[in-house]
Amino acid sequence: MSHHANPGSRKPRYLVGWIILPIIAIIGIAFSLTGQDGLEIARREVLLRRIGDEILAQSGDRTSRVLPVTKVAANEYKISFEKGLAFRPDSLVNTTRRLLAKDPLATDYVVNVLNPNASVAYGFAVAADKKDDIIACIGRVQPKAPYVIDVKFKPTGMNLAKHGYLLGSLPLLAFAGFVFFRSVSRRREAPRQQDTEIIALGPVLFDAKSRQLTVQGNTIDLTATETRIMGIFAQAPNETIARSRLQKEIWEDEGVIVGRSLDMFISKLRKKLEAEPDINIVVVRSKGYKLEVSA
């Protein structure tokens, strides 16, 4: 005697799915927004340090340090320098605008350059609506002094527009989840493909998923960054990879640029490969690097 599933019995499960999916989506969005806000704040501090670095270089000083950016309040930061510097107001305005344009939360802010006695040597304000900008005296070069740059951002609070957009998309998310889970259930009996990410580079094996190299039969662990760099080389062995491409794909796409870090990671990878003479990472002068595989 054959038994057929009652179509009506499926409805409760579908209804439960329609209820659970929006709840999961709301929780996911809440965590996502919190994480994104934290990431944006971290990126902001990197951008502020970039401002200090460029202003210092524009003053002709390429040896002294930009001191750690100090967060003095929830939306206020101070950029300090190891030594005194002179600056051009127009350069300060242009540099600050250009770099903080990469911060989606920095729509309105006030920049004050403070003298050692905390008086304001120069200041300007930038607003989301350019007609509300306050910028003056950009042609007067300020004399050398131990300035501190104070940057105050307008509190963003909760971005209602972004939240409203995401919450309004919940029905679509729920429907997409319903379709996804339904398609997965139909494929439940299909054999599962084994995910293999092992690439043979001559006698060396590179396992991107496990972040490992197998060299001369020995397993060597890689860091996440080393794995990303090795992954780029593994896709194009014996081909020159531009230094700019490596920097962009490894760091710039994440909003962080660290000048000497690439050389450091390349050096670490070389050491991990040095036991195998048939594979090496070489420098291509004025261009970048190449993973040479001779076997």
What this model shows, in words?
The chain has a five-stranded antiparallel sheet with strand order 1-2-7-4-5, with helices on one face. Strands 8-9-10-11 form a four-stranded antiparallel sheet, covered by helices on one side. A three-stranded antiparallel sheet has the order 12-14-13. It contains seven helices and 14 strands. A hairpin with a 2-residue loop joins strand 8 and strand 9 (204-207). The chain starts with 6 loop residues before the first helix and ends with a strand. The protein has helices spanning 7-58, 89-100, 160-168, 170-186, 224-235, 243-250, 261-273; strands at residues 70-73, 76-79, 85-87, 109-114, 120-126, 142-145, 148-153, 198-201, 204-207, 212-215, 218-221, 240-242, 279-284, 288-293. By secondary structure, the chain is an alpha+beta fold.
Q: Quick one: overall form?
A: extended
Largest sheet: 5 strands, antiparallel
Total beta strands: 14
Structural class: alpha+beta
**What distance lies between the first and last C-alpha atoms, to the nearest angstrom?**
64 Å
Q: Compute the average pLDDT.
A: 79
- The largest sheet has its strands arranged as 1-2-7-4-5
